Amino acid sequence: MSKTLDWDWANLGFAYVKTDYRYISIWENGQWDDGNLVTDNTVTISEASTALHYGQQCFEGLKAYRTKDGSIQLFRPDENAKRMMKSCERILMPTVPVEKFVDACMQVVKANEQYVPPYGFGATLYLRPFMIGIGDTIGVKPAPKFLFGVFCMPVGAYFKGGLTPVNFTIADMDRAAPYGTGAAKVGGNYAGSLMPHERAAEKGYADCIYLDPMTHTKIEEVGAANFFGITKDKVFVTPKSPSILPSITKYSLMYLAEHYLKLKVEERDCPIDKIDEFTEAGACGTAAVITPIGGIDYKDSLHVFYSETEVGPVTTELYNTLTGIQFGDVEAPEGWIYTVK
Ligand SMILES: *Cc1c(COP(=O)(O)O)cnc(C)c1O
């Protein structure tokens, strides 16, 4: 069993913590350098970097989990690596090969091992890989140089004291354009989401739900998480759209719903005026894990799914199965777990 710091693990939130080491690798003249761990948590770049002016940057988010026997594991890091490659391609940045990405994550977890929360608190070590265009480029074109970094911080369980449903409202703005960058994990999608999020929070909602940017008639996604609903006939349904960010948690839940819970699974349109087809609903993502949706405020009335205070049985079973796999208590499908050695 590896050592951990003496910390108030039960009350950790989601806030930046400067851990001991982070990984940095630089791309120049057509290739990546070997990359290495550094202690400095600041980055000095040219004032003319494309990341600063034209949003040429992308990021990822994944977690390291401490299991009951004290070992540490990553959940599907290869999927984050592949998604980051797609984000990079979309905005003309060089890609980081899957092996280099996973190795960087492993190095960062290993070097900051004492920050991986102990088993039993629902807390994890959150990893933030990112890439930025750097170098002297004031013209609107791809940067001549790129920085790929991975840093980490311990984060608390999303729900202290158990799963609780929260309410959402429908955004009256879009996070992505119909043929834009909605499916890429780029910072540009986030700047425009700050205002609708703040407005939803001011009205007492956890976040807002975005409708499809083309017609504003179908549920697209939930802030920084994907949406799913469970029908009366126990079908797991999740929206299909080219402007949704493909959530690894969502695709994992689709697999678990089908193979572990034996439910039917559908990826298809979810019209907002037909939300009463769902008896349960949730938001899913690495940070949110599964957030049960109590109700959605649409056209000035709150549509409640299962209950505003209790979590439905299918959502509960999905949550227990997913987190059971992530913390090593439930057998994972082949290839989902990477043990940190
Ligand atoms: C990262 C992200 C998600 C969740 O994806 P996971 O791979 O499940 O963490 C959902 N929506 C948006 C907009 C995101 O950026």
Automatic annotation (TrEMBL):
EC number: 2.6.1.42
Listed Gene3D superfamilies: 3.30.470.10, D-amino Acid Aminotransferase, subunit A, domain 2
Enzyme class: transferase
Alphabetical list of InterPro entries matching this protein: Aminotrans_IV, Aminotrans_IV_CS, Aminotransferase-like, B_amino_transII, BCAT-like_C, BCAT-like_N, BCAT_family
Record's catalysed reaction(s): L-valine + 2-oxoglutarate = 3-methyl-2-oxobutanoate + L-glutamate; L-leucine + 2-oxoglutarate = 4-methyl-2-oxopentanoate + L-glutamate; L-isoleucine + 2-oxoglutarate = (S)-3-methyl-2-oxopentanoate + L-glutamate
Superkingdom in the source lineage: Bacteria
GO molecular function, one term: branched-chain-amino-acid transaminase activity
Cofactors, names only: pyridoxal 5'-phosphate
Keywords: Amino-acid biosynthesis, Aminotransferase, Branched-chain amino acid biosynthesis, Pyridoxal phosphate, Transferase
Pathway: Amino-acid biosynthesis; L-leucine biosynthesis; L-leucine from 3-methyl-2-oxobutanoate: step 4/4; Amino-acid biosynthesis; L-valine biosynthesis; L-valine from pyruvate: step 4/4; Amino-acid biosynthesis; L-isoleucine biosynthesis; L-isoleucine from 2-oxobutanoate: step 4/4
Alphabetical list of NCBIfam families matching this protein: ilvE_II, PRK13357.1
Family membership noted in the UniProt record: Belongs to the class-IV pyridoxal-phosphate-dependent aminotransferase family.
PANTHER family attached to this UniProt entry: AMINO ACID AMINOTRANSFERASE, BRANCHED-CHAIN-AMINO-ACID AMINOTRANSFERASE 3, CHLOROPLASTIC-RELATED
Descriptive protein name: Branched-chain-amino-acid aminotransferase
Organism: Fusibacter paucivorans
Lineage: Bacteria, Bacillati, Bacillota, Clostridia, Eubacteriales
